[in-house]
Amino acid sequence: MSVVCGNSWGWLLDSCTHIDEGLQRCVCQSAGLEKPTYFKYCFKREYFNTLKPHGQIQQNTDILTSYTAKHSNGEHAKTDLQTRKKRKRKQRDLNTGELDAHIYHGKIRSVVLEGSRALLEAARQCGYLTEALITPPSESLTTHECQLAALCDMAKRLPLTDESEVAPVQTLNGDGLDPPLDIFSYVTENPFDCACEVTLMREKYLLPPRSRFLLSDITRMHPLINSGDKFDLIVLDPPWENKSVKRSNRYSSLPSSQLKQLPVPALAAPECLVVTWVTNRAKHLRFVKEELYPYWAVEVVAEWLWVKVTRTGEFVFPLDSQHKKPYEVLVLGKYRSCTDHAVRSSAVDELPEQRLLISVPSVLHSHKPSLSAVLKPYISRKPKCLELFARSLQCDWTSWGNEVIKFQHSSYFTRERAEDPAKTSETALTQ
Predict the structure, then answer these.
(1) Which pLDDT tens digit goes with each residue over 367-397?
(2) Which of 6, 52, 115, 342 could form an SS bridge with 270, CB 3.0 to 4.6 Å?
(3) Could you report the per-residue pLDDT of 392-416, keeping only the tens digit for each?
(4) What are phi and psi of 343, to 5 degrees?
(5) First to last CA, the chain
(6) Where in this protein does the record put region Disordered (predicted)?
(7) What residues does 388 pair with on adjacent strands?
(8) Distance (Å, rounded) from C-alpha 175 to C-alpha 308?
(9) Distance CA 251, CA 201 (A)
(10) In the predicted structure, residue 52 carries a pLDDT above the cut 90
(11) What order of strands is seen across the sheet that includes strand 356-359?
């Protein structure tokens, strides 16, 4: 389970443990070997090794810069001082978006502060966030150079498959476990109860048990729609437009208006729970609540907050920072189709209007914590779950996006040999 502890404020999550759960036994078919080899994979801990608040690091940098300017000779110190004075003179009144964000922060500030304090104290009583911090932060984390989005663009030039002749879902081959799959035109499924290491486009990826995915952009979602599945939970992490993304060019963003093209009503079962990750820009939050959800016939029922902390339990950014906040918003809604008259299941708990999710964030961009465990009481038993704009896979989930298997690349994991389940069974029988 990814839930370390929980109370009336929310839950504290361990994202790394959740990732590892589905990869305790992974089958790898090696060339030239008749029998497969089994490994245990673990997500590298250095990707969750945030030791100090980012604001504190910046503050230390500012102090060092000030000291250098004070003790250096020549025009450099004067220029630096003049630049800082100009920046102070450029301080201005808040614009409409900043003012809305400031008002929103004022409403939820006490909840974040008090709820985080209570959850972190409960976590420490469980022995979490109390271990000695002996792992030094890595100077340069190695990350796989992902070309999946570019490959999706190239795949759009290929002709569409004849939907009348071809099933929209393809499964892994249990004999070879490494078939030449067309992952752009079909939903690919690992039907087995163990994870599988497969070679896709000459790269090694790990597919969790009973996971499914479609690698495509928003114009090629028809295999997912044609699969016929109706989902009880749909989670979205849209690539929101903002200035930092444009400057860094880390990934392609999507205008808010284009999100309406997502076929959520076609994929949602009656009373489907729809959850959207939203950045702290007020216009994005307003768009989801006032335009996007009404367009999909989704009724807003709750707003939760993901609070990001370091391994010592401090906010990753100062709570009242004017630039970045240590939390993100999740908007939760229920799909209310006018043609559906579903009766709410008595086994489903009432969704609370406000909760906190606290975790140490991944240093990998847009690597969100799983919501499986915390949402389980609020959806039907044995639900069908879908993540849109996903960059990783989960057991018993379907995932879609143009980088959907990005964080399943084997380079993000360590591995060690695991017991062959057949040998384990033989040992148990002889005892």
Answers:
(1) 999 999 999 999 998 999 999 999 999 999 9
(2) 342
(3) 999 999 999 999 999 999 999 999 9
(4) -95, 130
(5) 31
(6) 72-92
(7) 236, 400
(8) 43
(9) 20
(10) no
(11) 3-7, 10-13, 356-359, 298-308, 327-335, 268-278, 231-236, 385-388, 397-401, 212-215, 187-189, 169-171
pLDDT tens digits for range 123-177: 999 888 876 554 555 555 666 788 888 888 888 777 766 555 567 999 998 655 5
Contacts for 88 with CB less than 8 Å, ≥ 6 apart: none
Spatial CA neighbour of 236 closest among 176, 179, 279: 279
246-301 pLDDT, tens digit each: 544 555 678 888 999 999 999 999 999 999 999 888 899 999 999 999 999 999 99
What is the DSSP code (8-state) at residue 410? Answer: G
Task: Please tell me the predicted confidence (pLDDT) of residue 347.
Answer: 61
In the three-class reduction of DSSP (H, G, I as helix; E, B as strand; rest coil), residue 405 is classed as coil
Considering just the CA atoms, what is the radius of gyration of the chain in Å?
Answer: 24
**Joined tokens for residue 293:** 């959800």
Which DSSP string corresponds to 336-390?
A: --TT--PPPPTTSPPPPS--EEEEPPPSSTT-PPP-HHHHGGGS-SS--EEEES-
Are 403 and 392 a contacting pair, CB within 8 Å?
no
60 vs 222 pLDDT, higher one = 222
Percent of the chain with pLDDT over 90: 55
CATH numbers and ranges of domains, the chain: 1-51+92-431 (3.40.50.150)
The residue written with tokens 């245990």 in the block is 40
Do residues 258 and 79 make contact, with C-beta atoms less than 8 angstroms apart?
no
Mean pLDDT estimate for the chain: 83
